[in-house]
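=== RUN LOG ===
request id: a7f3
mode: sequence -> structure
chains: 1
length: 125
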Amino acid sequence: MTIEYRCPTTEKVDELIQAHADLLEQHGISGGLASARPAAGTVGRYYLSIDAGVWARDNGTSWDEVSGLSEIYIQGLIDASISSHASNASAHHTAFDQADHDALPNPHHPAPTYDAVNKEVVFEI
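=== RESULT ===
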């Protein structure tokens, strides 16, 4: 049995991000990449950082995060996960070696292909 897995290219992802930003602007909400957020200065304005998943509200002098997962919050989750994993011996595993590889029924798959129409890389697993 073959399973097809499709992965969007960066070009497609960029187009999707822009489409979401355009839709938000139609409803009076600015959105786009976090690095493209305008300087604060208009009280009550909202901005959705699509790449970071963070809503922010302009308070006139700075942007207040109103919801989402900030970089600091995500880094805290990562740090906590690393710390708890390091102290949990049962979470550690043995290395996958050549003998393990050779024991697989079909360890090799065809090379991925490119679907130019949908701008996706296609893997068969």
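=== NOTES ===
Helices lie at 10-26, 71-86, 98-103.
The CA atoms of residues 21 and 48 lie 8 Å apart.
=== END ===
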